[in-house]
Design brief:
four-stranded antiparallel sheet; DUF2911 domain-containing protein; 2 domains; DUF2911; 10 strands; 42% strand; signal; alpha+beta; single chain
Length: 198
């Protein structure tokens, strides 16, 4: 009789432990199924080498907006190397850089009427030519035509010992109606002042 009771107790204990274990596994499976699925791509995301960016500022009543793609140096000689001297450059990567102003600007005694312009340069070792061109929507300098130039003038570049890895434009305030536009890349910075036309 005792053996029978002992056998029944052992059987009950075994069944209880088995049921508990099965309940645990069911719960674990349910939790796993309920977890949100995240798709993992086997391909690493490609780094953009020349990110598209812009800068803008208000100088008095003038809103000045510059839109460009910002290439990197990546251990290259840029001016006089990747970009030959004395050749037109779209002052950025991919599409031509453009500048828009809602007010006329006076630059080196010349007027740039309000509007949107392709911004080009001709880099050289001692002097750069700055160009505002009426054709603002073009790929690189593919469609550049000198006859569409609205304004041209020359500036002297500043050379630094430090490398600016990515091309960067800035619009800076000098006074309520005066400002400056600069571009810096590699060891070169080029800038020019302007006055907002009344």
């Amino acid at each position: 009789m005792r053996l029978r009771i002992l056998f029944i107790l052992l059987l009950c204990t075994f069944l209880f432990v088995s049921c508990k274990q099965e309940a645990k596994e069911t719960k674990k499976t349910k939790e796993t199924l309920e977890q949100p699925k995240t798709e993992t791509s086997s391909k690493p995301s490609k780094k953009v080498l020349s990110p598209h960016t812009s800068t803008m500022a208000m100088i008095g009543d003038a809103h000045i907006h510059i839109d460009y793609s910002s290439p990197g140096v990546r251990d290259r000689i840029i001016f006089g190397g990747l970009l030959a001297y004395d050749k037109v450059w779209q002052a950025g990567a991919h599409m031509a850089t453009w500048i828009e102003t809602n007010k006329g600007l006076i630059i080196q005694g010349q007027e740039l009427p309000k509007g949107k312009y392709g911004f080009f340069t001709i880099p050289s070792k001692d002097e750069w030519t700055i160009i505002f061109n009426s054709n603002w929507n073009q790929h690189g300098k593919d469609d550049y035509d000198e006859k569409d130039d609205i304004l041209r003038f020359k500036v002297k570049p500043a050379i630094s010992d430090n490398i600016k890895e990515h091309l960067e434009y800035k619009v800076s305030k000098i006074s309520n109606d005066e400002g400056s536009i600069s571009l810096a890349w590699e060891k070169v910075t080029v800038s020019f002042d302007f006055k907002v036309k009344e």
